[in-house]
Amino acid sequence: MKSEYDIIIIGGGPAGLTAGLYASRARLKTLLIEKGLVGGQVVTTERIENYPGFEEGIAGPELIKRMDAQARRFGLEIISGNAAKVEDSGDSKVVALEDGKKISCKAIIVAAGAEPAKLEVEGEDKYRGRGVSYCATCDGAFFKNLKIAVIGGGDSALEEALFLTRFASEVYIIHRRNEFRAVKVIQERVFANPKIKVIWDSVIEKIEGEDFAVKKIAVENVRTGEKKELDIDGVFIYVGTRPNTDFLPVNTKLNDKGYILTDDNMATSIKGIFAAGDIRAKLLKQVSTAVGDGATAAFAAERYIEGLEAKG
Fold first, then answer.
1. How much of the chain exceeds pLDDT 90, in percent?
2. Do 186 and 238 contact (CB within 8 A), yes or no?
3. What is this structure's pTM?
4. CA–CA separation, 239 vs 139, rounded Å?
5. Where are any strands of DSSP class E within the chain?
6. Strand 102-110 to strand 92-97: parallel, antiparallel, or no bridges (unpaired)?
């Protein structure tokens, strides 16, 4: 059966768009499938300061707009859809979408990223969208002059806490350890901001509310066992991510956290399937590393397709 595309890319964040740019410039017929907004989590990032080439930083939506336009200029096709299953038939691959449509190709680049991990505490699901959020850029403006808790201690948690001080009267950062994992420059900004208060060595046990809105949280100190309640109007959760790998073949090798294992050329354990970006097991998950992954994956996929064509 003749494949409809040379390459299908699943996911439209920086890794997927870069892979699409490189593959399209190589004159490969390439389709990118994105289930939500093209750009992924970058679209909800107010400002990116560590992507090379932008001295004053660049807004996440603006960076994605430029990446999208550049890739489309070379012929990248982009559609909206949710990949439900990837079928591997050796030299041929099929991506089955949630709506039942099936699209065939010679190679696949998985760049579906990861979604925010949940705290898994009482009240989290009940009040999601009613005071519980995973995106400060999306929801911060709803909390003007209110008290907010940010959960986490990495770059995302601290950056979003700083952003939320534009709206909130007070921002509590609750972290289960006694030091942050975020880079030092972000920590310095947090400690210098009078609106931010840090609660160390603590976790949320419960989120409570009334009239369909968050009103307070129960907090426990993991060292002393001391418990207390805080009057809070919003909870923003940044405790890691969960990779979107449910649609992959069962024999795809993953690490113990569910991220895809690849070699240096972004090749997965299945021939003809490559992975790029935050969905891949690696040390650093940033826009700059996602772009590098995407470029490498596209180049490796091109070489793989050349091998198929030479074979037969």
1. 86
2. no
3. 0.83
4. 18
5. 5-10, 30-34, 77-80, 83-89, 92-97, 102-110, 114-116, 132-133, 147-151, 170-174, 196-199, 202-210, 213-221, 227-231, 234-237, 241-243, 273-275
6. antiparallel
Q: Is the distance from CB of 180 to CB of 158 less than 8 angstroms?
A: yes
Pairwise CA distance, residues 252 & 250, whole Å: 6
Contact 217, 232 (CB under 8 A): yes
- H/E element, 265: none
Active-site residue list: 135, 138-139
Rounded Cα distance, 222 and 116, in Å:
23
Using the Cα atoms of residue 135, residue 276, residue 39 and residue 7 in order, give the sign of their dihedral: negative
Tens-digit pLDDT profile for residues 186-231: 999 999 999 999 999 999 999 999 888 999 999 999 999 999 999 9
Tokens of 30: 């390439």
DSSP structure class, residue 58: B
Structure-token pair, residue 262: 């690849």
Residues 155, 241 contacting (CB under 8 angstroms): no
